[in-house]
From TrEMBL:
Enzyme Commission designation: 5.3.1.5
Gene Ontology biological process terms, A to Z: D-xylose metabolic process
Keywords linked to the UniProt accession: Carbohydrate metabolism, Cytoplasm, Isomerase, Magnesium, Metal-binding, Xylose metabolism
Name of this protein: Xylose isomerase
Compartments (UniProt record): Cytoplasm
HAMAP family the record matches: Xylose_isom_A
Enzyme class: isomerase
Active site residues per record: 100, 103
Quaternary structure (record): Homotetramer.
Entry binding sites for Mg(2+) 1: 231, 267, 295, 338
Source species of the chain: Spiroplasma clarkii
Length: 436
């Protein structure tokens, strides 16, 4: 079997002072943080699509990266990618991976041939999983790239497209069962509208709900125990996608009585596109008890599209991990790198270097967030800010002992209302001290 990442041995933790680029400076898998090994807090997963399929293209240029697993035979290339993926994961000590169906197998001449190709490749993947102990964090199906999905998938105005979408989801769920996936993800890449005047929004969203209910029913039928996840995104490629952000997605799930079956797979770059911070989206999901998993990347805020950069902002990652820890963790979820190396980072070793950077940055975020929790830095600030609700009239309000009349009587007797400064600037500065 060919070695794809030549002259690169196992990546080990060497501490923050190491000069070895092929070593972890902050990610120490067995370091105990808040009572658990770091590797249990940070269930890292390598994403098949950007890591083994992306070749450095952008809107203005073709491939810039050379990948030795590519051949003129699509099935042989797919098989080579399996070898490359498990070689990389073993060398990096990464315990999970995730993929879209089109990432792992060529499309073939028709849907039947595509499914046959998937079966062949997932047989190989299953063998590798059994040999290495590496697990599937989640899989999903691509219902947005093919020409038939031009008008959407479940939301398409063509019933035949809905049927093909259903068949593809059925196959995806079967593959999740076959590979014992921890989660199964839905991302509606084209489930939105291009032009509102020619769109029946209510009908399209009802059809999306229909296919999700079918998926829930089929998962039960085949005994699939994976957590169902939905990944919000506000725009691009559609003008307005229905799963715009965490709050919009939860409203949709609750309206269609699906919230008990689904949690959210949240991406930092999608939060940016929605006009939110990533910790905001995580906090919204946590409010609903729906924090499921993380697509870890960063968006370039001065650009208006999904740049999917590796997450290297330690403060952002600290705030994100604080929300995760405060919510009690990710359960079956994990942290996959929905991130691609830059066009200028075209060497094959850049794939490993970029993942080291992302893993180290999230490890720093975890350590910083754990320290914030241990010292109750933010907890004390929040407790002080809302202390008026712990006694007197405030306590009566939260215990539902007041009404508009009693509160009006109370308010009319007040001589003055006193409030205090939040001291935001100094607290923001002190927060930087927790960035590791």
């Amino acid at each position: 079997m060919e070695e794809y990442f030549k002259n690169i041995g196992p990546i080990k933790y060497e501490g923050p002072n190491t000069k070895n680029l092929f070593a972890y400076r902050h990610y120490d898998a067995n370091k105990i943080v808040l009572g658990k090994p770091m590797k249990e807090h940070l269930k890292f997963a390598i994403a098949w699509w950007h890591t083994f399929c992306f070749e450095g293209t952008d809107a203005f240029g073709g491939p810039s990266a050379t990948r030795s697993w590519n051949t003129s035979d699509p099935m042989q290339t797919a098989k080579n990618k399996v070898d490359a993926a498990f070689e990389m994961m073993q060398k990096m000590g990464v315990g999970y991976f995730c993929f879209h169906d089109v990432d792992i197998a060529p499309p073939g001449k028709n849907l039947q041939e595509f499914f046959q190709n998937i079966d062949v490749i997932t047989d190989l993947i299953k063998e590798k999983m059994e040999q290495t102990g590496i697990k599937l964090l989640w899989n999903t199906v691509n219902l947005f790239s093919h020409q038939r999905y031009t008008h959407g998938a479940a939301s398409s105005n063509y019933a035949d497209v809905f049927a093909v979408s259903a068949a593809t989801i059925k196959k995806g769920l079967e593959i999740c069962k076959k590979l014992n996936g921890q989660n199964y993800v839905f991302w509606g890449g084209r489930e939105g509208y291009e032009w509102l005047p020619n769109t029946d929004m209510k009908f399209e969203q009802a059809n999306i709900a229909r296919i999700l209910k079918m998926a829930v029913d089929y998962a039960k039928e085949i005994g699939l125990d994976a957590q169902m996840l939905i990944e919000p995104k506000p725009k691009e490629p559609t003008t307005h996608q229905y799963d715009y952000d965490a709050a919009t997605t939860m409203a949709f799930l609750m309206k269609h009585n699906l919230d008990k079956y689904f949690k959210l797979n949240l991406e930092a770059n999608h939060a940016t596109l929605a006009g939110h911070t990533f910790d905001h989206e995580l906090a919204v999901a946590a409010c609903f008890g729906a924090l499921g998993s993380i697509d870890a990347n960063n968006g370039e805020t001065i650009l208006g599209w999904d740049t999917d950069e590796f997450p290297t902002n330690a403060l952002d990652n600290t705030l994100a991990m604080y929300q995760v820890l405060a919510a009690g963790g990710l359960g079956k979820g994990g942290i996959n790198f929905d991130a691609k190396i830059r066009r200028t980072s075209f060497a094959i070793e850049d794939l490993i270097l970029a993942h080291i950077a992302g893993m180290d940055s999230y490890a720093r975020g975890l350590i910083g967030a754990a320290k914030i929790i241990e010292e109750k830095f933010l907890e004390k600030i929040v407790e002080k800010r809302y202390q008026s609700y712990s006694t007197g009239i405030g306590k009566a309000i939260v215990e539902d002992k007041e009404n508009l009349k009693t509160l009006s009587d109370y308010a009319m007797k007040l001589k003055d209302v006193e409030i205090e400064s939040n001291h935001v600037e100094i607290y923001k500065s002190i927060l930087n001290d927790y960035v590791q």
